[in-house]
Structures are given as structure tokens and as C-alpha cells.
Amino acid sequence: MSTCTECGADVAVHDDAEAGEILDCGTCGTELEVVDTAPPTLERAPDLAEDWGE
Ligand SMILES: [Zn+2]
User: Fold this and answer.
1) Omega into 40 within 30° of 0, i.e. cis?
2) What residue range is the signal peptide (predicted)?
3) How many whole angstroms from 52 Cα to the centroid of ligand 1?
4) Whose CA is closest to 41, among 21, 7, 50?
5) Which residues are near ligand 1, the ion (C-beta closer than 5 Å)?
């Protein structure tokens, strides 16, 4: 279990989650990237919109 950085809700992180995995917050819908697994740490995922890199 970890915490959404956007809304503070608990977000379930399964035991075999790997760094770089993207999870959705079930409360606010923000995409969260697993940046560490011990302990599970989430950050807001980079915006992969079409203008990425432009
Ligand atoms: Zn959230």
C-alpha cells in the first residue's frame, strides 16, 4: 500500500510491482509511477501526451 501524491488516497501496490510500473489512483484517476518498491513509493507519472518532447 502506498499513497497517491495528488489526493492522498491509499493506492494498492501489489507485491511484485516493479519500478517504472504505472498505476492508476482509484480515487482521483491520476496515473502514478512506481519509483521504488521497498517501501512502495509513487510519483505522478510523466505526462505522455502527444506533444511529449516538443
Ligand atoms: Zn489520487
Assistant:
1) no
2) none
3) 23
4) 21
5) 4, 6-7, 9, 25, 27-28, 30
- Using the mean position of ligand 1's atoms as its centre, give its distance from the Cα of residue 24 in Å: 8
Distance of CA 14 from the midpoint of ligand 1 (Å): 17
**Could you read off the pLDDT of 3-44 as tens digits, one per residue?**
999 999 999 999 899 999 999 999 999 999 999 999 999 999
Q: How far is the CA of 8 from the centre of ligand 1 (A)?
A: 6
Domains of the chain: 2-44 (2.20.28.160)
For residue 23, the tally of other CB atoms under 10 A from its CB is 20
Q: Which triple of cell numbers denotes residue 47?
A: 505526462
Full-prediction pTM beyond 0.85?
Answer: no
